Automatic annotation (TrEMBL):
Entry cofactors: Fe(2+)
Species of the source: Mesorhizobium retamae
Gene3D superfamilies registered for this protein in UniProt: Peptide deformylase
Keyword field contains Cytoplasm: no
EC category name: hydrolase
Keywords noted in UniProt: Hydrolase, Iron, Metal-binding, Protein biosynthesis
Signal peptide: none
Residues the entry annotates as binding Fe cation: 94, 137, 141
E.C. numbers: 3.5.1.88
Homology family: Belongs to the polypeptide deformylase family.
Protein name listed in UniProt: Peptide deformylase
Amino acid sequence: MPVREVVLIGDPRLRQVALAVDLAKHDWRPDAIDLADTLADLKGRLGFGRGLAGPQIGSPWRLIAFECRLGSFVAVNPHITWRSEEAFSVLDDCFSIPGRKVPVMRSRSVTLQCLDLDGQARVFERLEPDLAELVQHEVDHLDGILMVDRTVSEGGRGGVDR
């Protein structure tokens, strides 16, 4: 499948709430493959990249490609089912906002539930802070939220989705 261009800030597709995937249909599958291929290409060319959400390639579907300690896979209809009360400030960056890092508040740990491309349920419980931050960033993309929407002063409070 083709590698796609990353959609950049200012494009209204980044502000759309992504649509739930209906596993009985197959209209979302090409986007899932393109998403994984695009993330692999970015990581290969740039040397970094742990996740990429559907809207970042112009896809309307609730899909996230991961290449990190969680594995290399596409999460279908991912959602956070638990968030720790404890939060922390992290400098966030994003392929859709190149060259910019902003401080955001994130829950220190989260639990992620999703399906894989075969429709099998996957659960990642009480993730460590670096993975929790990644998951929250990518799920935000599916809800039309960008890191700049969660910007806080260094060490400040605010911006955590509760």
